[in-house]
Amino acid sequence: MIFQSFSSIGPMLDFVALLPVMGIFAGIYLPEATIVAFLISIVTLIPVIGFSSRIFSNQGYVSYVSESFGKYMGRISGMIYICYSFLVLPNIIMFLASFLFSFFPLALSYRILFDTLFAAMYMVFIFIPLSRGLSLTIKPIMILGALEIGTIAVSCTIMFLNPGPSLPAVQQQSSLYGSSFWEAVMLGILMFSGGGSGIFLSGESRKKNTNTARSLIYAYMVSGFALIIASFSILVFTGNLLQTYFNNRAILFTRLGDTSGNVLLIAIIVLLIASGYNLTLSYGNALLQMLTSFIPEETGKNPGRGMLAASIIFFTVPILVVSRIFFSFFYSFLFIAELVSMLYGLNHILVGISSAKNGGKMLFRISGIVSSGLLAVAIGISVYTSGLSETYLLGTFLLLAIGSIIISTDMAQGKIISSYEKLYSQVRKI
């Protein structure tokens, strides 16, 4: 359960992808943005810990919100979680493709071909373990998670020992708590957003009253410490070169390779792919655990992990196609990353309000109010100041949020269940 939560944070992917992007927005205040994001995430985690210590269900957030506000609000929480979880797989594929192919001139010349082949192979390797069961996914999650943290530790040590050029020059670029700072904070919140995924395994826990809560705390503490140290090391190592990351995603790690040799660089690239794979596996695992509990309760039928894993791939393909044809994978990655962060925040606002109403101990009630307020402010400032196509970002966010509310009504659920039963019977015949 610890590694399920830890791997859903994806520390190596955050180290390579999100921290440098956060540095573009926050400048020399990258460590401060990481710390603020971590503190908000910790406050957000407290209500989840409170619920997880007394509600043991693989439905996770759905169970927590349902206990306080009834089944309809629980469905809304579930639909929001499903929305942003379905966006995680294509988002990871987009980043990995844009990063890896920046190393290879041949791949840049035939970008569409390489993007297509990479996406197809990645989805095949994700589908196989997800469709086979929980035990097959947990083993690679644990092994790869341990390798990630070890490689980050080695890389940070090398970065601290090799400071970059003209560090003070970065100070001209940003101001603390300015608009771009809060965009960095929202991306930082996204880094820790998967850390609560251990709750979707709470139904499998042998010591239900202690295992889930401890797993969440351990995973957050280890990943938080690692990523805060990593933010300092990236700033020291890159200096005023950090701003070039947007046009050259490989700059940070090619310099690391020049400093410490190609062996470490190759290890980082391999573990970056492994981290993306691990993160996708963890998110997919949590989503499937939730759906295999949520769908039978609503429909009376269990579709099985294979069919649900296939549905994840089915929804991933059109997102990748649209992103590749009309935008670049990297810009689409940034757009979806902010969207996922906002939807995650919205879901945790619901959990926070639920905790304030029915959280048990006073600590959990107060933390519910505080976390909901912090997330609402962070989302509001980020959207208001966003330079990343804010109209489209806000429109997509509202569309998915309102869509979740409509889909969760009894009338819509009745139609969905009727359509699902027809599809389910046809698939079973095949």
Structure report:
- By secondary structure, this protein is mainly alpha-helical.
- It has one domain: Up-down Bundle (Amino acid/polyamine transporter I), CATH 1.20.1740.
- The protein has helices spanning 2-9, 11-26, 30-52, 61-69, 71-100, 105-109, 111-132, 134-161, 179-191, 211-238, 251-260, 262-299, 304-326, 329-358, 362-385, 390-407, 410-429.
- Helix 2 (11-26) crosses helix 12.
- It is globular.
- Mean pLDDT is 75; it is low at 168-178.
Q: What count of domains describes the coordinates?
A: 1
First CA to last CA: what distance?
Answer: 36 Å
Q: How much helical structure, as a percent, in the residues?
A: over 70%
Largest beta-sheet characterization:
none
Average pLDDT reading:
75
Contiguous low-pLDDT stretches (5 residues minimum) are 168-178
**What is the alpha-carbon Rg in Å?**
21 Å
CATH homologous superfamily label: Amino acid/polyamine transporter I
Could you give the order of the helices and strands?
Answer: HHHHHHHHHHHHHHHHH
Please give the CATH class. Answer: Mainly Alpha
CATH topology value: Amino acid/polyamine transporter I
The number of helices is 17
Strand residues, percent: under 5%
DSSP strand count: 0
